[in-house]
């Protein structure tokens, strides 16, 4: 969840959201513990915290300072809820797969009923089965497509391609298909794309006169 | 008397940086108050996760008034011959906002002028403090400042209110985007709404009513006491205590348990999970054995502490279950079988993989073991296996366990105990004042690992630059020096570096790598000895001899340090300087090889010769390098004959054979001292 610009009472809003979920900060020990977020490949970073509930990290809370290598102005506040963890604590469950997904006329459906097979199959695919040769080709395609679209001045579809390239990189990484040096080179490739997309998007918005940044009160 | 309070109320500050940040804030304010000459008695510092505050006691309300004298035109230029003021004089009076009749005459040795004395009123705290506080905040050592919302202001974390109170009065200003006032907030959950601080004296008490212990040190001792009260066997690491103090405003200690089966996991992994990951304090029995309890400091008097305990236990259980799973799974593949996997891990782009490094370490550790009487076969084995644990899942999850994990797995694999110990010790020392490897084999491996990295990175022209030292080469250099010096291995560093270079099978670009690494490492001795209170001239006196055995250097430095405090040292240092200058100025060499007694003219010559001969005998009987202190203490006896010689004997006499004879004695004098150090360099 992103709030832009980050409101001055953003922490209180977040804590109210926890209360709405049924967490009582007068019972649980809720703390904001320094943890700064960074995604070098996307040229993005911010300062903030991980939020602890009784020692468990339930949320990543970040004030974005840079994206695509550009200064954020205004600054967004990003709140990334750890939904499964929150649910586990609310239901008092030790195993993720025992979470109650829903109670139906036919009985209780658990998180495991819904997601376990997916987890097993996708993990096996990601770690063992993904076609490395194909992934390398896909990466190249997404990279070239992104560059082509940046060239034509279409930052949004170009951004889609960066996301696909980034995901393909993650799959290659999970397959252990990249040596340390290659890995660094791929990160730099994505970083270059991300930066070019960010600059292209900025230019497009500038041409439009930054419509969402106008002072609506006056 | 009136006190002053400043409080910056923020969102949660980084706990590890908090004490430093608070101290800097206090210092920056004090410094500026002194600079503007606003007197005060004492200061008090407050720091919590959500505030930085300073109280200045009995702060003067305004600066003292001062009289400033301004000089105008010269007297003869100020009035014409009819004694009427000239335009220059009238202009000066105007610029002083006064009339000509109010001007004075200033007279000194160089002439006479018209002038004016102006009273300058001292500025009040209301005028001075806003700027002082703003400047103090701008000067804080904040590695990364952030912005928030639509603001252009930058600080550690977003700021919500700023208090500036002088007595009961608010000092109006805008600081960090906030209009100053007397408002702050108490505990995030146990208190609600805004709190009006009456006056600086009430700050601490009012916050305490709002469930905030504002004083960092007070909170720290409350935490220590609360933890000990829960369990007297609690192990409190000081750095962790500081961090925890920076994480809570209202500390409450709770105790939790974990299943005893987890005690089978390496103790270091358990401690790491508790201290580094969860900020818990472990419990250790009197025999140093870890127990299955922990203490954690929470920030709330919970309405249901049991729920908080269960939550914390659940988190720790998950972490320990992971560690136990990794430990058991890792053991299924021996370290020996993991070596192949090192081919997949790049050590450094230009230096090949960790597999290559393992090969080099095997050779180099063996070579070093040979020099310090460690088992050579075990050394080659330890070098070969040293990096294998980097492929284990346990080290993947707990990177701080590198080496230690290798030790456990080596034992499980049935490797020799000394090999396992060397693996677990070889990252020591990890930071300044950390322990050194206890075993000789561990020391050999630790030296080999660091020298290999130093040679590799200097060899590929990647030395540290400025404050950038991404490969920790400065720390590596100090580690090697400390091991050689403190474990009294009298090894030649240059030969060790050459040995490390010869383990590389690929050519390295930098052809001066040996001297570059040697100079870099010896350069590290400066900060090393500075920290130990050894003056730079003492170090210079020893390093002037171009010795590359760090332990030998160390023994000499200790001897010179002691010599410097002896009453004779100053005169002998001056004498050495004199001799050194004399010899340097000679245009022809001294052909004489032995002193010719028949050329003596004066009693002082004979006396110096006798003393020199006695000292030369003493030196041959004390050739052991550990005797430097004794040698210098003996050489100190030369002071009297040397002083007398310089007083009474004309050295540069026209009688050339005598001149040469005298110069030769002085040369021998200097050579005696150069056996230990060049004491001419002492200041």
Description:
- The complex is a heterodimer of chains A (218) and B (683).
- Chain A has 218 residues and is α+β, with helices and mostly antiparallel strands.
- Chain A is built from six helices and nine strands; from the N terminus they run βαββββββαββαααα.
- Chain A folds into two domains: 2-92, 2-Layer Sandwich (BirA Bifunctional Protein, domain 2); 130-213, Methane Monooxygenase Hydroxylase, Chain G, domain 1 (Up-down Bundle).
- Chain A has helices spanning 10-21, 83-91, 111-129, 132-152, 155-174, 180-207, and strands at 2-3, 30-34, 37-39, 44-53, 56-67, 70-71, 77-81, 100-104, 107-110.
- In chain A, the strands form two sheets. In chain A, strands 1, 2, 3, 4, 5, 6 and 7 form a seven-stranded antiparallel beta sheet that branches.
- In chain A, helix 4 (132-152) runs antiparallel to helix 5 and helix 4 (132-152) runs parallel beside helix 6.
- The longest helix of chain B has 26 residues, at 305-330.
- A five-stranded antiparallel beta sheet of chain B has the order 2-3-1-7-8, with helices on one face. In chain B, strands 4-6-5 form a three-stranded antiparallel beta sheet.
Per CATH, which architecture of the largest domain in chain B? Orthogonal Bundle
Q: Globular, elongated, flat, extended or rod-shaped: what is the shape of chain B?
A: flat
CATH class of the largest domain in chain A: Alpha Beta
Task: Identify the overall geometry of chain A.
Answer: globular
Share of residues in helices of chain A: 40-55%
Low-confidence stretches of chain A: none
Assign the CATH architecture of the largest domain in chain A: 2-Layer Sandwich
Strand content of chain A: 15-25%
Distance between the termini of chain A: 28 Å
Considering DSSP H and I runs of 4 or more, what fraction of the residues of chain B is helical? 40-55%
Q: In total, how many domains does the architecture of chain B comprise? A: 5
Rg from alpha-carbon coordinates of chain A? 21 Å
Look at the structure and give the mean pLDDT of chain A: 93
What summary fits the major beta sheet of chain A? Answer: 7 strands, antiparallel
Q: Major sheet of chain B: order of its strands?
A: 2-3-1-7-8
* Oligomeric state of this protein: heterodimer
Number of domains of chain A: 2
Question: For the report, how would you describe the main beta sheet of chain B?
Answer: 5 strands, antiparallel
